[in-house]
Amino acid sequence: MIWTISNFREFQKCTRKWFYSEKMASWSLKNPMRREVFLLSNLTSIEAWRGNIVDYIISNCIIPRILRKQQLIDEEVIKMANKLTRDRYNFAINKRYRENGMKKSDHDYDYSALYPIEYPDPKINLNEKLKIAWSEIEISLRNFLHNKDLINYLKEAKQLIVQRPLLFKLNECNIKGIPDLIAFFDNKPPHIFDWKVHFYGTKTYDEQLMIYAIALKNSNHKDFPIINNNYSLNDYKISEYQLYKDIIRNYLINDDFIENTTDFIADSVEQMRLYDCCKPFDELNIDDFETTKEPRNCGYCPYKKYCWEEI
User: Fold this and answer.
1) Strands in 94-236 per DSSP E
2) What pLDDT sits at residue 309?
3) How many domains does the chain have?
4) Residue 48 lies in a domain
5) How high is the pLDDT of residue 134?
6) What angle separates helix 206-217 from helix 5-13, to the nearest 10 degrees?
7) Is 233:214 a contact under the CB 8 Å cutoff?
8) pTM of the prediction?
């Protein structure tokens, strides 16, 4: 089992949904139902789709230019984002994710599967939601591009690492985190960033960032600068950038924060072990994984077509 903060939160809401996502979903064509569950597992809401587009443009367009000390031209970046948005929409509306032989790994640029296309709702104006999503994408990217203090700070970095999976073991369980950005400096501690695109931006993500920091401290990557070992975990910097609201939240790491987060991970791992989550799919029984007791959690669940049939 690989533990992540997101799959544990999913487990807390609905153990059945976790089972579908983490155990039953399989790309293999040998089992049609498991293949279908895999396809459904890739469905995203418009809101998550919007955030994925922003992440992609920052990671693949903005950060490489910052690293190379190149000029960032707003309209060029927005044009790239607009094209990506259209390409991903076309991929989703044509349900290309259902094409025979389609591999998500071969379509990192345009792969897209939208929940409201797979599960149409006549009460929802999809075109209007897409227009709003594009507006929020554009505003978020322009806020980043206009944040000259942040851009100049990142230009000082020796190395900028985007979307790198970090793995470490705790209580014999693999713990995984994927920070949006890790900035390494010559004479400063590592700085971890997480981008968020939320309309209200009131929820904080300090716990998620702390997990990333622990993962970075306990991970070994050959291409990471050795300066990473020169600082204690308490020295690390962690920041959440609410792009749509243009707010950066910096969180202080101290011993209590580290201990509480480590205890949280350990406790959550033990909760999942009670369900034998470390066992492979063939050794598990779906009936041992209860459905949620909160109907609102079913709202954007991609597995309705199977789950509701069983009920």
Assistant:
1) 159-162, 166-170, 173-177, 181-184, 191-196
2) 64
3) 1
4) yes
5) 98
6) 140
7) yes
8) 0.94
